[in-house]
Amino acid sequence: MSSSQKVGILPDAKAAEQFAYFLNRQGIEHELKETNEGIEVYIHHSAHIPIALKALEEVNGASKEAVIHKIPLGPMTLFFITLCVSLYVLQYLGLQELIYNSLMMSKHYYGIQEINNGQIWRLLTPIFLHSPASLQHPENILHIVFNMMWLYQLGPVIEANEDSKRFVLLVVVIGLVSNYAQYLSSGPAFFGMSGVIYGLLGYLWYLSQFARHKTSYYVSKQLMLFMVVWLLVCFTGWVGNIANTAHVVGLLTGIIFGALAASIWPEPKHQN
After folding, report:
1. Residue 157: is its pLDDT beyond 80?
2. Rounded to two decimals, what is the model's pTM?
3. Domains delineated in the chain
4. What pLDDT score does 168 carry?
């Protein structure tokens, strides 16, 4: 018979994410429950409890600079970050016009003539472009910094617990859908990875809420609340011209992907 026993508590979402990754790699079925004191860890099978207890002692005893079970940076997450940063740097080397004319949905303010003429990559490539900073607008640097920070946080979780192909599929489909929705809303003059970021978050959130016993994904309530509040703030116009439609549609697309993944994800195998 299987049992579920609390083996300890983790201080924050980052520690819970790393610990869940370790348990997944070991094939240990578990559950994470958020409380006011932290995130409680429950192990489903008594035979796995000693391994979990030992690992918990290491996590709670490790310094912040040496946390064990760190989730590795996946190759496709690294590729996407490198591509975005490289294109950003090339803008300052005199190639901004060439990059924008080649990778935006259109060189024009209306229509998608280039895509209609066969340049179908333009449906996706705006996600790799970001606003260049300038003396007049130094705050533009935050566009790429925040997007790459979130990609660095979310991408490795999916690549490590699933695989790089699933991660790329998510990025491509969410990017295509959110880009096209933004085009229908405001025309082709937009760019940025934000729609994809919201989509990846929606994907992980759905699985963390409705399929945690299968995936062990964890998205804290505080993080989801912050991102939803930020989405609403962007609609006010206080933070400038934002691709709000891409944010909303990206989030919904990620949630739909999460629901599909939850329906086909195999149930964990119970052990004695």
Report:
1. yes
2. 0.78
3. 5-61 (3.30.70.240), 75-264 (1.20.1540.10)
4. 97
